[in-house]
């Protein structure tokens, strides 16, 4: 079924609104930590995210993408997705908790290398609270997958808005009262839990059938289908975290905080890309099933062009307005590295286009092809960070990020092009045979 132009535009607008508000609130979290605390506090919080996010995304299997593109008549029900997501999310939480309390570097705040202290005190509680927040987020996400498949993205957007505002308020209040990053992380977890219980579950309960379906054979088939997506999205999250790991090891928490503050400005554009991509994923998947792939190419082409324009706008804005923007948001201490900021915006622009190509891959059900792509991307980033960060610090981390973005973009476009060529040839052969 093809979505009408008006319906798709309205869906995109709602998705854009929800993602933008959520991005602004998470940006507000960084500003609050930077203004009320120190760069080290900001680094401690974001390092906790860097530990928990890749684990949860790896074990998410990107089930939401599979839900949103599920063909009609599929054997998989919402209960299968929900059951698998709960089991894997609990496993992810266990991994994060065990790692936080068994890795000495995260409990005593001492350095394992010649550089300054890598994490500072009390990171383990931060990891635990953020792990709980990610657990609640995982449950909300499987609810979002059900709603997205039915093009009910207005409900998803309203949930994101409520979750972002509430969690940011609770984090800000907790940190202002205690000046403890762990209690700030607890505020995030509480905000996620409240919206999950009072909004997401009630909105999703309509038309889902049985929620708990522990049918082992079906769950194993679903895991085999979607594990490549989990690996791919886990590697994407690892790519975002790798520069922070190296900066924390070689240059301390202050550098992690500075890098994160500059990087998060690019997230505003990422939220726009995510909103448009999520709204377009299901229509793209339906167009990919048609005999004529022209409409698929046209829609994806418009998305790629939009991503390119947004990236160019970001680079220009960073070069011209980087100093007043960073200083106004975070304080004068954050406005000294405009060249680094401009380079990060360039990497973000490339990643915007690559993300749209990634949505195209998902719509084409190219799950397994994403594993070698992001393995190579992570490998390039790892080597670049190892070579550049110790000597060049923030600038080295920015160059490493840019190089990995180039690899991701070229690889994503190549996979989409190959699959479209294969499908075109196959349908031309079928028409000749018919």
**What distance separates the N and C termini?**
24 Å
Structural class by helix and strand composition: mainly alpha
H-E string: HHHHHHHHHHHHHH
Q: Give a quick account of the main beta sheet: strands, pairing sense, barrel closure.
A: none
Cα-atom Rg, whole angstroms? 21 Å
* Beta-strand content bin: under 5%
Structure write-up:
With 434 residues, this protein is mainly alpha-helical. The protein has one domain (5-427). It has helices at residues 5-36, 39-58, 63-68, 78-102, 105-108, 123-149, 153-178, 181-204, 216-251, 253-265, 267-288, 294-330, 338-363, 370-433. Helix 6 (123-149) packs parallel to helix 8 (181-204), helix 7 (153-178) runs antiparallel to helix 8 and helix 11 packs parallel to helix 13. The longest helix has 64 residues, at 370-433. It is globular, with a radius of gyration of 21 Å. The relative contact order is 0.13.
Summarize this structure as a short list of keywords or feature phrases.
single chain, 434 residues, mainly alpha, globular, disordered N terminus
List the SSEs and their pairings.
Layout: H1 5-36, H2 39-58, H3 63-68, H4 78-102, H5 105-108, H6 123-149, H7 153-178, H8 181-204, H9 216-251, H10 253-265, H11 267-288, H12 294-330, H13 338-363, H14 370-433
